[in-house]
Amino acid sequence: MAYTAKVGPSILSTDLSQLARECERMMECGADYLHLDVMDGHFVPNITFGHPMVQCLRNAVGPHPFFDMHMMVSRPEQWVTPMAAAGANQYTFHLEASTNPGHLIRLIRESGMKVGLAIKPGTTVEELAPWAGQIDMALVMTVEPGFGGQAFMEDMMPKVSWLRSQFPSLDIEVDGGVGPDSIHRCAEAGANMIVSGSALVSSDDPRSVIALLRDVVLEAIQKRSLDR
Ligand SMILES: O=C(CO)[C@H](O)[C@H](O)COP(=O)(O)O
């Protein structure tokens, strides 16, 4: 089994006026990576920030934190080169926003970033499957993208289970309403990259929440490997 448990705080619920400090705080608390939500006001009804902010963040936090860019934008091909130049490590685009996923995957790889492919709740996992052999990570959204603090959609878990059964080594990320109350369902289904926003970032003890989320996933991975 090539994959392991990783926890990536979503910065959407942080104090955005202190974003670099918040990213550092999450890394100090044991985060494995940072999930940076980019929204353009078209693909989703919300706006966050673009590559100039990512460049500033990279300058502030240094070369090590892994930036997983969740690109909730309507023209994902437009931002590949600027995001790579700004210091992004992984470019996760939405299948629903792309007219030519194969071309976009190649573009992202040529720019030196890893490739993530996301699907919204209304998109079937069979639509993602043809690309699964070419990507580093599949993101199964467990809320409608756009806002933090929404309720976890448990009915997305069959998508995760199916992906895990078909692509045993693939990194599978879940995002939306994930925290101590929902992590067991995500882990049992086979997710290994865990994005958590409000439940983690607003906690009084984010270090313990990160450790708990990671431990639950690690336990499920170990159980799955023993069952094989
Ligand atoms: O992509 C997102 C919303 O589109 C966020 O990453 C996600 O919602 C995380 O926040 P929370 O854990 O509070 O739901």
UniProtKB/TrEMBL annotation:
SUPFAM superfamilies xrefs: Ribulose-phoshate binding barrel
Protein name, as recorded: Ribulose-phosphate 3-epimerase
Highest rank taxon of the organism: Eukaryota
Binding site for a divalent metal cation: 35, 37, 70, 175
Reaction equations catalysed: D-ribulose 5-phosphate = D-xylulose 5-phosphate
Keyword set, alphabetical order: Carbohydrate metabolism, Cobalt, Isomerase, Manganese, Metal-binding, Zinc
InterPro entries, sorted: Aldolase_TIM, Ribul_P_3_epim, Ribul_P_3_epim-like, RibuloseP-bd_barrel
Cofactor(s), by name: Zn(2+); a divalent metal cation; Mn(2+); Co(2+)
EC number(s) recorded for this UniProt protein: 5.1.3.1
Pfam families the UniProt entry points to: Ribul_P_3_epim
Pathway: Carbohydrate degradation; pentose phosphate pathway; D-xylulose 5-phosphate from D-ribulose 5-phosphate (non-oxidative stage): step 1/1
Main EC class the enzyme belongs to: isomerase
PANTHER family in alphabetical order: RIBULOSE-5-PHOSPHATE-3-EPIMERASE
Record-stated family: Belongs to the ribulose-phosphate 3-epimerase family.
Active site: 37 (proton acceptor), 175 (proton donor)
Cofactor note: Binds 1 divalent metal cation per subunit.
Protein source organism: Electrophorus electricus
